[in-house]
Amino acid sequence: MNSGILLVDKPQGITSHGVVSRVRKAADTRKVGHAGTLDPMATGLLVVGINSSTRLLTFVVGLDKTYEATIRLGVSTTSDDADGEVLSVTGAADLASDRILEAMTPLTGDILQVPTTVSAIKVDGKRAYDLARQGIDVELKARPVTVSRFDVVERRDATHEGTPVIDLDVVVDCTSGTYIRALARDLGSALGVGGHLTALRRTRIGPFDVDGSVAVDDLDADAVDARLQKPADVARILFDVLQLDAQQTIDLGHGKKLEVQRDDTPGPVAAITPEGRLLGLVSVTHGRAKPIINFPTDEVHA
After folding, report:
1. Which of 30, 55, 78, 165 has the fewest C-beta atoms under 10 angstroms from its C-beta?
2. Do both 78 and 194 map to the same domain?
3. Helices and strands, counts by H and E, the chain
């Protein structure tokens, strides 16, 4: 199996690691990883790296993301989503739409967000969700995130055990590290009725869209081969490109610095061989290209 990036549509009820296991079986390799964990309840896009292309995932995980979600106003839970225990139920049917939109405004833009307690964030070396399950109070520090879009697509009336509540379908564009569950929690808190997430679907990570993904149930060797994006193609999307000549390819492959005619770059540059193969990623400073990451030639065929 060649190296490359595979877009997978994760279904509900399976962990992100479970998806990796399915890809390992379909691709017949242990060298598989993903960029950006989705909770078991969530569905949508996982960017999966196979073989040496796992090295590209470092540059994918921090990209902006888009989510489609459903927020239930009127019910708060221990985990800020539908998997947690109910903490409170408050009638919310009388909430005016204008008031909801007004409460969403402070949750948009550059904000400080306290992550949900049931999260993978480490506190004194332990996962917050492990501490929460042990009944230990966890206080997580607020972190800066950017929510560039927080829009209501549809409002629906619903009930929770006879109590009238509201379901909001929303779309969120945000930076990496943003907790959509926390947005649901904070919106419900601002409105005085509580809130939690009942559905979450990730539709985009940076330039990668879920529309180009393969369903987990369709994963087999043929599907992986057909959908695998070549590392050079992915690198061209993510980075500036340094087109190498034959001698530069040899020199850079031996770890040498190259004299290049281009401006300094703040991030990695994809070094592409004359045959169109991704040789590696380089940094360019003062007219010299220095290797950051090289890609093995025995498994990368772009």
Report:
1. 30
2. yes
3. 7, 19
Whether 281 is covered by a domain: the verdict is yes
Q: Give the Å distances, CA to CA, from 43 to 36, 37, 67, 173, 212.
A: 12, 11, 10, 16, 15
115 and 22 belong to one structural domain: no
**Burial zone of 223 (CB within 10 Å; 0-12 exposed, 13-18 middle, 19+ buried):** middle
Domain with 139 in it: what CATH number?
A: 3.30.2350.10
**DSSP designation for 264:** -
Is position 217 within any domain? Answer: yes
Residues with catalytic function:
39
Residues 247 and 122 placed together within one structural domain of the fold? no
| Residues 6+ positions from 126 with CB-CB distance below 8 Å | none
Q: What pLDDT band is residue 141 in, cutting at 50, 70 and 90? A: confident
Q: Using CB atoms within 10 Å of the CB of residue 186, give its burial: 0 to 12 exposed, 13 to 18 middle, 19+ buried.
A: buried
**Whether residue 193 is found in the same domain as residue 218:** no
Tokens of 138: 């966890």
pLDDT single digits (tens) 142-158: 999 999 999 999 999 99
Mark whether 268 and 223 lie in a shared domain: no
Task: Lowest mean pLDDT of 3-12, 15-24, 126-135, name the range.
Answer: 126-135
Instruction: Name the residue range of residue 222's domain.
Output: 4-62+207-229
CA 12 to chain centre: 16
Single pTM value for the model: 0.91
Contacts of 29 (CB under 8 A, 6+ apart): 1, 50, 51
Helix 180-191 / helix 97-104 crossing angle, nearest 10 deg? 130
